[in-house]
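Hi D.,

Good news: the full-assembly prediction came through. Inputs first.
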Amino acid sequence: MIRSKRKTTAIHLLLIISVLIVCLPVLLALVISSQTETEVLAYPPKLTFSTNWVSNYTTAWQRINLGRMMFNSAFIAIMVTIGKVIMSLLAAFAFTHFDFKGKQILFFLVIVTLLLPVPVRIVALFEVVRSFGWINTYAGLIIPFWASATGTFLFIQRFKTVPSELIDASKMDGCRPMQYFFKVLLPLTKSTIGALVVIEFIYIWNQYLWPLMATNTDNMRVVQIGIKMLMNAESSNNWGVIMAGVIMTMIPPLLVFFILQESFMKGFALQSEK
Amino acid sequence: MKQAGFSSKYLPYLLLVPTFAVLIIFLFYPAFETFRLTFYKVHPYSGAEKFAGLYNLKKIFTNPDYLSSFWTSAIFAIAVIGFGLLTSLLLALLLNQNIKGAKIYRSLLIWPYALSPAIAGALFNFLFNPANGIIGYFTGIRTWMTNGSTALFVVIIAAVWKNLGYNIIFYLTALRNIPKDALEAAELDGAGPVRRFFSITFAFLSPMTFFLLVMNTTYAYFSAFGLIDVLTEGGPAESTNVLIYQLYKDFFVNSRIGYAAAESFILFMIVVLITVMQFQTTEKKVYYQ
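Then the structure:
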């Protein structure tokens, strides 16, 4: 008994240390974002909160037009997420509830896209988007990302676990396929949708390479590029302002993550159950 | 996919139209074009093309900058994968213990998943900066970012830190799916915790480990771009210039299109190679069970 108690204490201790290490960089950023330039430069470093919050955060917000960037990032992430959820729901429905010619090949083609992340096709993707006149447009940042192998796969896994009696019963009631999709299937898929929303919102919000190439005006920049612009704009010593910007840009994806955390974990757990 | 329930001639195709429209225009066509351009010389301004066979591939593999970038990437990827998977497995095992507050610990350990590589870059830039970085102060070493090998080390630590949450989530899911009776049976047979871990837990975790191996490889090769751009810009003296950064410079800064296409092609081959390896190992695993 004593031994197991000791073991529990050891586990708690290890976990607390790990949590501290993992959280340290962001905690420190929070502390620094409250300090004036002189305090940031103090040596030995000052590791306590100060009172320069408002000044740092408003400076960061104005210096690089962060409001506009936050709007761009949010709008793009939301539109991509909606598109991906709808398209992969429809595709997964086709793959799980119908038999049709070429199903295996089409399914294979969807999965194979996992091997084609942006960097391996960037040269020609850039040309395609440019030929559409989509450089510096929302379309160029949103539409190329609408299809999703991850989403299709997640929803297929979810749909497979729905008991087939439900289809039979709905058919007896004279339910047409799309009625069944909206009335029976969709309500059962909520936590998987939640999981996909978390994955895709965070993925798009955090994207860097594509927005860097597909935009070049200040109006169309996203927050990730903003972080670097802020670091270049602020004299290299004014970390208080830079960290204030960093903290602000991490809030939206963290909100999405914490709000949908439960369905995110559930959606994943379901995925790996056979 | 045997659960077919409805029959309709056109509906399934109609449902797939949106997905395939996007896939064809923005994935398959660009991928194919990039592959084609690997074998062409392209004029940077006029866009005029001329077939050049293996010229681009030969050129990049005789370019010392590219070769050193190739090895930097390999070291970076191996370190990020090895260190990242090991740390996250240990943390997942701790989180999987039956203790009070496990959920809170879990949240506090996985949340950096929501942060971006660029943010990780900014945070670690501050921690290690030569002027007043905290780490510099506490270690007494101020040259973290000005020395090539320590800079690479910092980039690796930042990349591991950022992806820890992702790996922990998947390892936790795998740990939860280990059948309890397998562990109990082993305990009845008198196997101690260490043996139980290596004979049972480890075996059940290996499919997930292979999956994470692939995901972390693509992470190390592709997603690290934002981290590198904010933290080091490939420096000092090209010591953190990974392949994706070299590709960005060749394509976007130097407008060498054929060259960049060839570099994309090499990246693609690396991903394919690792995925094929993964499939083969997991298939064997399935037969074995």
